């Protein structure tokens, strides 16, 4: 069950408090192509060109029937599915730099939510969660990674709680979470955003792309120009009336984040508004084993402002999730092979953090699977050869198995990198004394 939003349309300019609450959803936030096929790759603007392979990718586009309207969508690529969900200001083109890149390795779907881009505006109450479910149904998606911007990220969280079996993992960018309120500073952008601006869609669009210091970082001049062009092409994006008709989940997500059991990456721009950083912290604390990254030099619209950084973090996260899924489902030997394959294409990156793999190895030691633990410790040494701690852990693995000479060798290597590792020094003395 879902309930209608408590906000109702008004013929008068809304108060800052009322519309500010909507901005928690909205602002945390070209020619129309007919349904059919087109191609991407090899041409376009700077955002689409960032890290895009030279070869083209086929796009299928069309409309999805939802209760009381239609949603525009595009899809491309093959493989595991990624669904991209835009923020509360810019439609599906916010993902222009990412869509063709992900399509080289995945099936990628992006769509316009109601009243955005090429999708129809709502004429009655609607549910964003139900709309996203309909995207899955009509396009035959059984399970997918969800990547959501801002309010789109909040939608991805709500959808995951409603349909956990349909979500492989989450990438949440400047996301907000239902049940976590906003400060007055958020509502007014520190006094910059007035009731007069709220009441004038054109003024609101102009404010967001020229004045607001959080939506995009002050230095993001090219991204501001791009955002302005997109909003001029689709002015309805900034029309707040559609949000009066949206319904919300009966149970807010904030208190249920611990129920989410899929990998989650949380990205937030360095210059994003303080409330969004607070929401990112709450999401990070609530979702087990989530990882949070602050993107330097970006504001709220990270995919538009820092496309290369976003792609680097997201692709590394996808590789890591695949590595740990392989480890859990197929075992250590398969994970070792997966690591070797990953190093061939990304020699300077590891699909795991040092701490995460160490934890996996120590869990195996505790359950008596010492040989498996040693293999994982060895992977950590390959991935992080400058870390004294990985050698210390590998030495402990060998010591547990009774390989005294190897344990001493790796404790000595750990001491070489960190002469203050008194624990290693003590272990060496004990092992030599026990010979």
TrEMBL record:
GO terms for molecular function: hydrolase activity. Keywords: Hydrolase, Repeat, TPR repeat. Residues 83-307 form the AB hydrolase-1 domain. TPR repeats lie at residues 388-421. The keyword DNA-binding does not apply. It comes from the Bacteria. It holds the Pfam family Abhydrolase_1. InterPro entries: AB_hydrolase_1, AB_hydrolase_fold, AB_hydrolase_sf, TPR-like_helical_dom_sf, TPR_2, TPR_rpt. This is Alpha/beta fold hydrolase. It comes from Eiseniibacteriota bacterium. The lineage of its organism: Bacteria, Candidatus Eiseniibacteriota.
């Amino acid at each position: 069950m879902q309930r209608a939003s408590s906000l109702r349309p008004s013929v008068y300019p809304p108060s800052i408090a009322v519309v500010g609450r909507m901005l928690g959803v909205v602002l945390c936030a070209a020619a129309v192509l007919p349904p059919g096929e087109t191609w991407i790759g090899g041409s376009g603007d700077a955002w689409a060109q960032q890290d895009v392979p030279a070869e083209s990718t086929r796009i299928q586009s069309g409309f999805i029937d939802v209760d009381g309207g239609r949603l525009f969508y595009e899809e491309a690529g093959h493989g595991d599915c990624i669904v991209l969900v835009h923020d509360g200001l810019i439609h599906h083109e916010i993902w222009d730099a990412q869509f063709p890149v992900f399509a080289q390795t995945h099936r990628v779907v992006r769509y316009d939510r109601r009243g955005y881009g090429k999708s129809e505006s709502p004429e009655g109450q609607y549910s964003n969660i139900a709309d996203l479910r309909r995207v899955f149904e009509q396009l035959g998606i059984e399970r997918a990674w969800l990547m959501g911007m801002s309010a789109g990220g909040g939608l991805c969280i709500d959808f995951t709680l409603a349909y956990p079996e349909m979500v492989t993992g989450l990438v949440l960018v400047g996301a907000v979470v239902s049940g976590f309120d906003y400060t007055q500073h958020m509502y007014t952008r520190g006094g910059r955003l007035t009731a007069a601006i709220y009441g004038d869609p054109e003024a609101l669009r102009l404010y967001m792309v020229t004045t607001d210091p959080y939506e995009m970082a002050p230095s993001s001049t090219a991204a501001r120009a791009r955002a302005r062009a997109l909003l001029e092409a689709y002015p309805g994006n900034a029309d707040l009336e559609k949000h009066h008709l949206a319904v919300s989940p009966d149970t807010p997500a904030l208190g249920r984040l611990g129920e989410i059991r899929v990998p989650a990456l949380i990205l937030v721009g360095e210059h994003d508004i303080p409330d969004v950083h607070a929401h990112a912290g709450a999401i990070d604390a609530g979702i087990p084993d989530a990882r949070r990254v602050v993107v330097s030099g970006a504001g709220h619209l990270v995919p538009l402002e820092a496309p290369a950084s976003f792609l680097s973090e997201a692709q590394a996260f996808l590789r890591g999730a695949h590595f740990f899924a392989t480890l859990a489902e197929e075992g250590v030997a398969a994970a070792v092979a997966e690591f070797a394959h990953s190093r061939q294409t990304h020699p300077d990156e590891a699909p795991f953090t040092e701490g995460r793999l160490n934890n996996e190895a120590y869990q195996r030691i505790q359950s008596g699977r010492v040989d498996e633990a040693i293999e994982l410790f060895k992977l950590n040494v390959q991935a992080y050869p400058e870390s004294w701690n990985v050698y210390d852990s590998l030495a402990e693995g060998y010591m547990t198995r009774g390989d005294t000479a190897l344990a001493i060798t790796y404790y000595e290597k750990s001491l070489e990198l960190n002469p203050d590792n008194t624990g290693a020094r003590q272990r060496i003395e004990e092992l030599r004394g026990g010979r």
